[in-house]
Hints:
Layout: E1 19-25, H1 30-46, E2 50-56, H2 65-77, H3 81-90, H4 92-98, H5 100-109, H6 114-123, H7 127-139, E3 147-150, E4 153-156, H8 164-177
Parallel strand pairs: 1-2
Antiparallel strand pairs: 1-3, 3-4
Helix pairs in contact: 2-3, 2-5, 2-6, 5-6
Amino acid sequence: MSPNDSTASPRSDSASSPVVLDVWCELQCPDCRSALADLRELRARYGDALDVRLRHFPLAKHPHAYAAAQAAEEAAAQGQGWPYVEAVLERVADLDARGVPVLVEVARELGLDAEELDTALIDGRHLLAVDADQAEGQAIGVTGTPTYEIGGERLDGGKSQEGLRERITEIADRLLGEGGAR
Length: 182
């Protein structure tokens, strides 16, 4: 997925992407915001050879994270998944201070149907997707965000981002050298 691909979904399941990088993320998390530069760099370096998939892991300490995850799912349904995720992460402090109205504002700024996004938050149409991600994360031992999974290896970025991009690059290069095994 290209970092400039405005139609890409954070839940891309592209068959042409030989290596999957699952990113367990929370859209109210300052550490996830810090990880944006690494994700952009990885997507720029590998393009379609790396399938970066957003996996929701809202944390109880962030009261707007669950709504943000649902909003990201609606943005993906409207064809603006990654741009929406990145825009919300860029406004973590604003989301902390003002809550759900920020999610609707970001949708409007990106040209999404903001009223439909607001309706999706009310009717809960994306609850199951968010809950499923969170349950899977818990099952594999995710305890904080961001956490990465690539090539069967879990990397915890919630404590420090130091060296994680390099480690992900090493694993991706190895997997791509092995014929793109997942």
